[in-house]
């Protein structure tokens, strides 16, 4: 992986995490089972990392 690809992936992960955390703070409604949410977040971040 070259530097540009690594930076792009890091930016995508940053935007994703910021979006999820903002959503949880601004619209504090239930997002479902916490274990399911954690599994989905983990899988999504891993896909963004791996490409």
Describe this structure in words.
The structure is a single chain. The chain has one domain (3-50). 80% of the residues lie in helices and 0% in strands. The protein has helices at residues 3-26, 34-50. It starts with a helix and ends with a helix. The mean pLDDT is 90. The protein has 51 residues and is mostly helical.
Task: Lay out the secondary structure.
Elements (H helix, E strand, L loop, with lengths): L2 H24 L7 H17 L1
Largest sheet: none
* Mean pLDDT, all residues: 90
- The count of β-strands is 0
Structural class, please? mainly alpha
- Give the overall form: elongated
Query: So how many helices?
Result: 2
The domain count comes to: 1
End-to-end separation: 10 Å
- Low-pLDDT segments, ≥5 res: none
Cα-based radius of gyration, to the nearest Å: 13 Å
Order of helices and strands: HH
Q: Estimate the helix proportion, in percent.
A: over 70%
Strand content: under 5%
Protein name: TetR family transcriptional regulator
Quick structural summary:
The chain is 80% helix and 0% strand.
Q: Which key features would you list for this structure?
A:
51 residues; mainly alpha; 2 helices; 80% helix
């Amino acid at each position: 992986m070259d530097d540009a690809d690594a930076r792009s992936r890091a930016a995508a992960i940053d935007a994703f995490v910021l979006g999820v955390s903002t959503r949880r703070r601004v619209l504090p409604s239930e997002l479902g089972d916490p274990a399911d949410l954690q599994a989905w977040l983990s899988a999504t971040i891993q896909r963004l990392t791996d490409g």
